TrEMBL record:
Family indicated by similarity: Belongs to the LOG family.
Protein name: Cytokinin riboside 5'-monophosphate phosphoribohydrolase
Superkingdom as given in the UniProt entry: Bacteria
Organism: Knoellia koreensis
E.C. number(s) listed in UniProt: 3.2.2.n1
Record carries keyword Repeat: no
Classification via Gene3D superfamilies: 3.40.50.450
EC class name: hydrolase
Residue segments, region Disordered: 1-40
């Protein structure tokens, strides 16, 4: 706290960590006083600075839970997919085949297509990961998850989807699936992440989207042709797995060799 000679009570710089406060912004009590004083309202636990700690804790828990997961693929799809739907069967097959190819399966942990992919992964004896999110209409993680992490914040959860995945497989879905899909495209297109494959399953379901991308966005110069080429569209689970494996091998071959450090 820096105060000049003859200054009034709050006519000075008040430093609290990296923040500087002046004039009417200077608090009447110190940080330690407010911490140690048990009197007064408890609404401080809902303020933005306190939320930063909650956000930090979500990243710490997520990183800690997934750090030793090994190669994994994030699978997206609708929570509304019914168990008797062909899309559910497709999700189960995708989860099973990913495990057989040596990958863990990461989903949003909910019902529908996510549950299907988790079921396929668990039934195949692999790691079945669910990254849940606090929503008023969700019932928690599905029964096929054997490693689950629940999040309050979407952005913390999305980081885990990207950080621990060698690729994305996108099953038919709605707004949430589109959000995850376009975020993945944007991250790769802007080179914010090392390029990884994005595979959309279901030609009939996704064909309208591709027509719009080419007929409107590309035609109006809003995207480049190479941006659309980041997406792979297929009906074949074999092809989807082959795309993931090939891209993973290419990334491994392109990685710079690590020279062992000489002992000092």
């Amino acid at each position: 706290m820096t105060q000049t000679s003859g200054a009034t009570e709050r006519d000075y710089d008040y430093h609290t960590g990296p923040v500087t406060l002046r004039g009417s912004r200077v608090p009447g009590t110190t940080t330690d006083q407010r911490l140690l004083d048990s009197r007064g309202p408890s609404d401080w636990v809902h303020t933005d600075p306190w939320r930063v700690l909650r956000i930090q804790s979500e990243f710490v828990e997520g990183f800690g839970a997934l750090a030793e997961l090994g190669p994994a693929v994030s699978v997206f799809g609708s929570a509304r997919t019914k168990p008797d739907s062909p899309f559910y069967e497709l999700g189960t097959e995708v989860g099973r085949r990913l495990v057989e190819a040596g990958y863990a399966v990461i989903t949003g942990g909910g019902p529908g297509a996510m549950e299907a992919a988790n079921k396929g992964a668990r039934d195949a004896g692999g790691d079945s990961v669910g990254l849940g999110i606090e929503l008023p209409f969700e019932q928690g993680l599905n029964e096929y998850v054997n490693l689950g992490v629940n999040f309050r914040y979407f952005f913390a959860r999305k980081t885990m989807f990207v950080k621990y995945a060698q690729g994305f497989i996108v099953l038919p879905g709605g707004f949430g699936t589109l959000d995850e899909l376009f975020e993945a495209i944007t991250l790769v297109q802007t080179q914010k992440v090392t390029s990884f494959p994005i595979v959309l399953m279901g030609r009939e379901y996704w064909s309208g989207l591709f027509e719009w991308l080419r007929g409107t966005l590309l035609a109006e110069g809003m995207v480049a042709a190479k941006d659309i080429d980041l997406l792979h569209l297929t009906d074949s689970v074999d092809e989807a797995i082959d795309i993931i494996v090939a891209a993973d091998k290419h990334a491994e071959d392109a990685a710079p060799a690590v020279t062992p450090k000489r002992p000092e």
